[in-house]
Amino acid sequence: MSFSVLGLTRNLHGISGILQLVFLLILLLLLFKVVQFYLCRQWLLKVLQEFPSTPSHWLFGHRMKDQELQYVLMWVKKFPSACLQWLSGSQPRVLVYDPDYLKVILGRSDPKASGIYRFIAPWIGYGLLLLNGKKWYQHRRMLTPAFHYDILKPYVRIMADSVNVMLDKWEQLDGQDSSLEIFQHISLMTLDTIMKCAFSHQGSVQLDKNSRSYTKATEDLNNLTFYRMRNAFYQSNTIYNLSPDGRLLHHACQLAHEHTERVIKQRKAQLQEEGELEKIKKKRHLDFLDILLFARLENGSSLSDEDLRAEVDTFMFEGHDTTASGISWIFYALATHSEHQQKCREEVQSLLGDGASITWDHLNHMPYTTMCIKEALRLYPPVPSVSRELNTPVTFPDGRSLPKGIMVTVSIYGLHHNPRFWPNPQEFDPCRFALDSDRHSHAFLPFSGGARNCIGKQFAMNELKVAVALTLLRFELLPDPTRIPVPMARLVLKSKNGIHLHLKKISK
To answer: What SUPFAM superfamilies would the database entry show (predicted)?
Structure first.
């Protein structure tokens, strides 16, 4: 018995020693992390001292919750050209909103900022949005023909059909006194459009009740990813994956991926049908998904399944969510400026009559409507910002400089509200975009700029014009004064409380 007790005592002493050693190692690791954090922060404060900032927390940075856009407007007025924002105590980014600064940054070949964009990768993978270097160039060159005007021309009819399905649904709601939250309806319509145009989808997404699960997943992913980018404790994949938000994101990713995998599978099956493959091969220009399925890179190999799904996930998201944001905010801008709405309506009526038929040739004959669309995109840019990580030092026109490795964020929202280049920036004034107007080449960038500008910008502009023209023929848009939208920064510009409008059917 005494031997057993002695052995047990020794074991306890051994376990105690191991625990003490583990505790000491953890303590040393924490001390190392604290020293590393301190040295990193001191270096950042030194190299970024030329760029002003408002006070921020040493660990959590600028804690703005959903007030980020309001802060941007304040900074644009207070700090000329650029300022500093701390996402956390050791993760700053330099916000630039001066056209000359943007011209420098967008003219370079810096990669996307991995510090924040890596959080989008579990959702959309490494497609055209997140790729860098040679692979990005290969994919960009491969996909550019999908947006050739010969491809875009017949899309106008498809866009019109999708818009009319949405408007038919709105007519069935006519007579209701309450306002309608339009973003959800428009999101389904733009998803319907991109599915038919880019992915050869048969049927109507808007009439399929299951489609709402994808748009809801997109909404959740937009919010969750944005929150993670700004949470100091969620930078670690291990910690985030164990958190409630991490589990929610995993589930939303599954829903989004199931949708895109189903689209790919259906198109592959269609191409196996008799005669379909030969018909596609004879086309001068292929649709987006067909380009991916037939793609052969320079080394002669086909796209991997991972690359294929990444591009589909990327364009499924960007092709519907950013456009839905643009259309929703345009409708709101027109609803709150009835005189401009009426001028647009009269222009469209003179072009199309009372009918709903619209063609490619009509799109370039709506000058005033186009001016209003651009002014709404200035006020409410669908993508509020894009970020780069400097791969070499940079010096700006005013002499201020930044070293390699710093994150620079092009604040499109700040640029479009910069009073130095847009007098009375909060005012809706379509005349800013009259043909004889003069402005800096980089003062208006709703689709970004430089080599990495939005590849689908012409597709998007066409869809905006079609949606506005056909909607104004059938409805008068009226604001809901009890529910004024509050712009909110996300990956795509959203409203904190939705976008609610009254719809008044126009009698013919």
So the answer is: Cytochrome P450
